[in-house]
């Protein structure tokens, strides 16, 4: 079958949309768009606007950012009519979302920084609220995504900026179709496939997606109910399909039954946003008195309150004690501003809730609530719902409905027995209302796969890096497992392989061990090795004061988390020795981060907990040593490795592994698990329980050998396009260049995965390391070419290709690093200097931050380095050379562009500080003498901006780490 052209796809889509009830209208430009908007708003609001009145409407529409316009769209509006009367109207009926006017148009031309023509626009009440961008079959979806990003920068904000009201973008090549919200700061990973309720993808644009997603009532519902305007980040967020189905099921359950239920959505799938949206909709139902969101730790109480308020400012006030919680329940709460607040949505810990309904002092105040219809939503309900509290809540509130969210439900196989017997999630919450398991999330690229390496005495192939002499089986040999010699070997293994696992510390790691006693030993070995100069890793640790911190029974379950500052009782139970050691370790931490935490009281310890959490997320801690804390409910996108010397199983194992598999960028290709215990069977059992036996291959990455085979195939494809690196320069057409870019990008992606394996060695591959570096240099030459052509407005088919430079860029490689290599080169013996020269040459041609500096650094090596007598002088001489070159380049820029020196210096300072492009007027204001005419303004502005960017890139960016 011939490839389907974009035009045919466009025509067929319009026919399908008309069948669904959209009226087709021809709109060629913005003037026609505005005329149609007036007619549609008049029709929707059953009113006629005079020209002057409609100007007022346009004035309302023209104000604000994309985020603020999202609010404007949803609010009731008001103008004063020509005769002095008040007129109230709306842009969108959000309450009865099907009752709006629907049109479709195509090929609307908009002129901004560039002239753009948009494929298909869906108009609701004349407003462009959905934009569909099409690519022909066979092209990457990413290209359509990048094209929309260009539109956002170049023309959506032009004139009346009506296209800034787009709420949903759809990109498709016919076979694959995705949708996403209007947030120009997101990347391709924030684009989603639509699915049916069983999580089966609906990807074909004409056969499924249009009917399911673009049907007028459904797309209106998504815009009106399922876009969250995130106040903290000032961005719109649209729900993914499984979040949509979960919220719909929950609402249906509350509206039509009094039954309970639970949502099984895998760890890392965005349960907070789902539960917020459910809470927000439920609290608006007239029959519901309160919605109470229950967490099981104080830090999650604070975190959830913060996140809920980020989704909707002021939606809740955290109840910092039980007394305030009772006031929120009884509508007697005064917020921190001294204002009375009727709290229909409450966030609390289960401990505070338990106190409120069981303590005599609160009984009188809470009695009136016994028969009120209250909905409870329990976060991570696999942890907190298996004691007496669950029964106590059900007994106290006669008309309550209880809903649980969990990533790892409790089944008969993984239920822990307590005084109340073995109870499952189904026993407590009845039916599962929606399921989205880890295999679904991996398929949808919402979480990463795990790469699991078992290190120790296994039947490995000879010569494996992971075959080190340590015990891995725990058969009544606690002494052997805790032996200092074994622990030291494990620490040495981590030190040797940490850079590889974390991509030179770009990411961070956690190390979970089986007891506080073992943790103390590990910490002291790491500390000793650091003092010996073996490593410079930043090691931190935390363990709670509770006596149940140790996994004493070694049953593999992570105990219920202690509420680390709910009550001072958490301070008791820890042996004096352990507490002294923790204080000693916290003192080390204070020295690293200039802080003053301790265990002297629960609040100081809680602040320490929060600070560690923040520093792990910020990438400032290399390895965090834990027993149980942080193994559940802790999300850090920068954490990619978990070292394990602890027996884990079932939900405890999945929860712990899942700390590593949050999506971040192209470089983070998997979550690394390095196990010093034989957890192979337990890993397989856990995956089978929470998905199915066949899922093991989906969730766990292939062995190293499989990826080397993949690499060889990718390499063969590459050399079929360009046999040698120099052949890339001889490629004739842009199509050939595009083919090379895609082929080498694939090579880079696989290399990014295999280099994290302990066994990685270039000798295992046909491609040599130098050949890879040479191809990488050519790849970056093409990237530079595209960048330069774009600056002079030359259209290229490579414009929208994602070069994924994050696979190349390394933060630690900068000019300071090059200077160290220059010192090494100066000191090198005759035999070694060629090797160092080659290393410098590779970095200058393949590191994105250094390419602009290549010519200058090469000149310094040729002309200045031979004249330097002592290696101690290299840094000073380089600084002198660089300052001189920078001054000359700046004067040349000023002279050739005829700019004001003082204003240009100030503008560069502001540009570096604000990290955004200067405005056109600011750039043209730099010109001394005659300013350019209206026709020359844009060209002159672009020329100055390009020169300033080149100057900054060469002399300022990438100078130091």
Descriptive report:
The protein is an alpha/beta fold and about 950 residues long. It is built from 35 helices and 26 strands. A hairpin with a 5-residue loop joins strand 9 and strand 10 (about 200). The model is unreliable at about 460 and about 545-575 (pLDDT under 50).
Helices and strands in order:
Layout: H1 6-19, E1 23-24, H2 30-45, H3 51-61, H4 66-74, E2 76-80, E3 86-90, E4 102-111, E5 115-124, E6 127-134, H5 141-154, E7 168-172, E8 177-181, E9 194-195, E10 201-202, H6 205-213, H7 216-225, E11 227-230, E12 235-238, H8 241-256, E13 261-265, H9 271-282, E14 290-295, H10 298-311, H11 322-329, E15 333-334, E16 340-341, E17 345-349, H12 350-358, H13 360-366, E18 374-378, H14 381-384, H15 388-396, E19 401-406, H16 425-429, E20 432-436, H17 438-443, E21 450-454, H18 478-481, H19 484-501, E22 508-513, H20 516-531, E23 539-541, H21 576-593, H22 602-617, E24 623-626, E25 639-645, H23 650-657, E26 671-675, H24 680-690, H25 696-699, H26 704-721, H27 734-754, H28 769-791, H29 815-827, H30 830-846, H31 854-864, H32 874-897, H33 901-914, H34 920-924, H35 937-955
Parallel strand pairs: 1-4, 6-7, 13-19, 13-20, 14-17, 14-18, 18-19, 21-26, 22-24, 22-25, 23-24, 25-26
Antiparallel strand pairs: 2-3, 4-5, 5-6, 7-8, 9-10, 11-12, 15-16
Helix pairs in contact: 1-6, 8-9, 11-12, 12-13, 12-15, 19-20, 20-21, 23-24, 26-27, 27-28, 29-30, 32-35
